[in-house]
Predict the 3D structure of the following.
Amino acid sequence: MDKLSPRHVAIVMDGNGRWAKQRFLPRIAGHKRGVDALKRVVRLCAQRDIQVLTVFAFSSENWNRPQDEVSGLMELLALALAREVAQLQKEGVRIRFVGERQGLSASITKGLDEAERATAANTRIELNVCFNYGGRWDVVQAARRLVADGQAITEEALSSALSTAHCGDPDLIIRTGGEMRLSNFLLWQAAYAELFFSPCLWPDFDAADLDAALAAYEGRERRFGKTSEQLSPE
Ligand code: IPE
Ligand code: IPE
Ligand code: MG
């Protein structure tokens, strides 16, 4: 059988706060190192011919964190938008931001649009950054769109109205930081994703951790409801 390698990998980048706490640093220091980890992992994924990487950066529920952490995360996003777009260009990364734009400041929204526009012709790897994203929000916005357009609600129509319709469903979802839950990430899209949970805190996630997840994926049998015998008849 051919070796299984994922076309689309999604990651719940969790554990920044604990990483900082272990070092007696403020939580935002962990988030800063989390941005460095993301830059590293985008490069590693491109080297491994992964076509789409979707990461969870800020959930609909993360607004409930202390005000200074929320504003620190917004500043970090603004800083990354200002600093990293040129590098994305150089590396052939097409970036898209997935999530509710309402509730974000006008300057951040403008930065998101500009980064998307600037990298729109890049083809080496697609990077989706889920920011102010929730799986339930996504299903509701898709359903509302279908209703507004007078379309019937079918699985196909709903899938194509989701905010990730441009890149299809993830093959592999990795969550770092040791928790074994989805926390409202890609709920619909995760229907047949393989799941991999890593105890590694996100700022420490490196090539060996990524390769451990890819090796685990390689050993999975994706049955999509069928029997094993149907997949590989003797
Ligand atoms: C993930 O790290 C980043 C965001 C949710 C923004 P956390 O900040 O959740 O880190 P832990 O889970 O507290 O360690
Ligand atoms: C999920 O992590 C969201 C992101 C990584 C952006 P959380 O740390 O917010 O998840 P819970 O609260 O532990 O479920
Ligand atoms: Mg967390």
Notes: Residues 99 and 110 are 14 Å apart (CA to CA).
